Request: fold
Amino acid sequence: MPNTCPAWLIKGVAVIGDHKLRLLFEDGTVGDVSFQDDPWDGVFAPLKDPARFAAVTVLDGALYWPADELDWAPEPLYEAARAHALTAA
Reply:
């Protein structure tokens, strides 16, 4: 049976630097996304702290920070990751 999940759902995340993540998506896309230039204001202000940002996980196909109960929709991250996709050697 073919996969019916949207391609842009996040399946995995790895922290690869301060405010920088490597994301794996449902369709197999793997790419790096930097959040270093994000303003980190409002409800996301706690994520200015690199240690707090690094506590990211995946919940229901989106990035999720459990301590702050924050999530980040996967659709724009998919486009950013595709722009910085990794390819096999």
